[in-house]
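Could you join me in thinking about how sequence relates to backbone shape in a protein? Would you write everything just below, so we can both look at the same thing?
***
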Amino acid sequence: MLNYYQTAAGRMLRLDGAEPGCWISLVGPTEDELARVIADTGVEDEFLRAALDEEEPLRLEVDEGQTLLIADIPVTESEETDKRMFSTLPMGIIVTRDNVITVSLKENPVIADLSEGRMRNVNTALKTRFVLQMLLRAANRYLFDLRQIEKTSSAVERELYKSLKNKELIQLLTLEKSLVYFTTSLKSTETTLEKLLRGRILKLYEEDQELLEDVLVEFKQAIEMADIYSSILSGTMDAFASVISNNLNIIMKVLTIITILMTVPNIVFSFYGMNTDLPFLAHLAQWGIPSYVIPIGLAVLCTFFSWLFMKKRKLY
């Protein structure tokens, strides 16, 4: 999808074609759309295709007056509460003499916010500032998604306290994976921003310098949050793994005790079930007491003393 935008009177307007000072947005572009942008702007074909690879690493490159910045943008792959997954998607930002071009394989929150006019004080003609505003929006999105990860993990932990099912553990693993993606992308972006801060790649005016410093602060904050949440989540999973292992040990201990206690009466009844003369049976017959009283009573006593012995030894 190919769209042209330009700001006028604080509003983001869609254009029919490329004009100086406009923003060109490519999302999942076709070959014809790529060829059209190349014809309109003279941008390098390699620059346009760089962000169409999901595995493209973050980088900053300058060639013949054109600057390419590959930035990872946070995206939500699944909105379902019990299957929520966060990841990152590369977006190419190309600054030419007249335009800013963004290229993304899929729609992402930064492009959506810009195209729908949800960002204030945007001016597509001020190319450097426009790029920095995109990066600031990306940083804010990272912070928002990190808070969502924290909320989701807290909700899953509450469920784990009740059930300790595999589903909740798998969801925690998914969130931990999301944090790994975020941390890797954030640290790479921080390095790229520090290169920009030197002012050798993009010309920075005083206001641009301040904005870039704000962007860098936001990314550093996101890195700290990601590291903290990752440590907490990792510790939580280790704790629950220990709880599950302990619960399994308790269950096995209880089953063993039950087996032992049930074995005692079985031994007594087996002894009295043998085809031999046993003591006291003749006396019971004289007193009119049923013969099964002794084995039952003996079984109960032996079971009780076995239970008492295990309790005193704190075997359960």
Remarks:
- The beta strands are 2-8, 11-15, 23-27, 59-63, 66-78, 85-95, 100-104.
